[in-house]
Amino acid sequence: MQRLINAMTQMITNYVEYKKRAKERISMSLKEYAKKRDFSKTPEPPRRSRGKAEGLRFVVHKHHARNLHYDLRLEHKGVLKSWAIPKGISANPADKRLAIMVEDHPFEYKDFEGLIPEGNYGAGSVIIWDEGTYFLVGGEETGQDKKMTQQLAKGHLSIVFKGKKLRGEFYMLRLSKNEKQWLIIKKADAAASQAGKLR
Question: pLDDT band at residue 145, thresholds of 50, 70 and 90?
Fold first, then answer.
């Protein structure tokens, strides 16, 4: 009986440690985001992580900063992995659009719209251009978070979007010369279009 109690106590201790380490990883992931912002001067949300999972979410922000660009954000382990896409996302499989990986953003940022005041990082207007859910091809077997970790490490994401504008499968490929630079390319599927840039 004592052996069973000891085993259960150890299991609980291990679980508490696991949750603590997960929170620490999220905190480190959002450190760069917080470092660039003064939350007393910008309406952007402070660094907090997501609570319970309700399916993987994505958002694309249209950001009128110094230069107009689009920010793709994918939920992963309680934060939003983020890429700035200068020319926007194209539905034409022939188009290869540059996507620059930037700092992780807090999960609450998926709902953010507003004006970032002058003098702040990323000053300019931000609107939600599209949002919805996504899944990674092959993640059904291994779990989506695990698949995302694997695909990020390999530098090749296969993503199926279920948004209002972003639909179907896209590939994201990391360029070997610079780990921050990726390409986003539409797969030739039923949602592809020769029209090019999605509006």
Answer: confident
